[in-house]
Write a structure and sequence with these properties.
elongated, 15% strand, two-stranded antiparallel sheet, 4 strands, two-stranded antiparallel ribbon, 98 residues, alpha+beta
Length: 98
């Protein structure tokens, strides 16, 4: 081996290496369906949402509704209401106030 070349030990699968890279990246990634069903959640998101005491690992939340996992601080529709009342718009330049 020369330079900065590295090989993955045979006992480690590429999937295992990918999972470790995602965990150590420090960013949370999750995916849910339009109806709110969790399709995937990584360990970082699981920790950010403080679900460690409720579920043994991130895979345990797959199939659950995201609304059952996250407690929203503001009432439903509060962002939409603020935008309507204050005249914000979302466009190509981002969010702007009128």
């Amino acid at each position: 081996m020369s330079g900065g070349e590295h090989t993955i030990p045979r006992h480690e699968s590429l999937e295992h290496v990918r999972q470790q890279a995602m965990e150590f990246a420090g960013i949370g990634i999750y995916r849910f369906a339009f109806d709110g069903t969790v399709l995937f959640m990584d360990r970082a998101t699981w920790r950010v949402f403080e679900l460690e005491d409720l579920y043994p690992d991130p895979a345990a939340v797959t199939g659950k509704k995201i609304a059952d996992l996250i407690i929203y601080v503001d009432p439903e529709g509060s962002l939409r209401k603020a935008i309507r009342e204050q005249g914000f718009s979302i466009g190509g330049d981002g969010i702007s106030r009128h």
